[in-house]
Amino acid sequence: MEAPFGEGSWKVIDDQRIEVCPPLCLDEGTYTITYSDPNGVLGTMEVSLEAPTVPTLVCEHEHEVGTVQHVYIHTGTLTDVLIFTIISTEAIPTVIPGLVSLGLGNQGSNYLCGPPLMGECVQDTIGMIPLSAVGTQLHFQSILINPFTNATPWPTTNMCSTTYVN
Questions:
Q1: Burial of 110 (0-12, 13-18, 19+ CB in 10 A)
Q2: Distance between CA atoms of 1 and 88, rounded to whole angstroms?
Q3: pLDDT in tens, 94-135
Q4: Residues of each domain in the chain carrying CATH 2.60.40
Q5: What's 56-165's CATH class?
Q6: What's 77-108 look like in SS3?
Q7: What is residue 112's three-state secondary structure?
């Protein structure tokens, strides 16, 4: 069953295997997966989900134009941070020694910065992707700033890239 990115999905791999992608930002813990066919329950399986220990951003490898895109950010073990998602068409680093080191933005000449978000795991809405974006690739990375300490250098997430398709 395919579902919109972030909402969780599953698909049958073969007669013995299924692939399960849990909803993003689902609380960590143990969950029971029940599998069945039209004749009833075939079995169950316990799975354990663990929260990331480092700041992590996830995005779709490909996204269909004409639909709303989201990315998800987990702060890992960091707390009390503002999350700023940075978007760029260039996977060329931006480094400001002692302050921040990003894998995108071409030394600050090519980027957009969204409004801050707060939370341990958040969905950031990028917005409706226009039809004219087919073939374009965007890169995403987040900066996490503690507004109470403003400690530097500012931690960042991994970089993630999405290509837009029709």
A1: middle
A2: 32
A3: 999 999 999 999 999 999 998 999 999 999 999 999 999 999
A4: 56-165
A5: mainly beta
A6: CCCCCEEEEEEECCCCCEEECCCEEECCCCCC
A7: strand
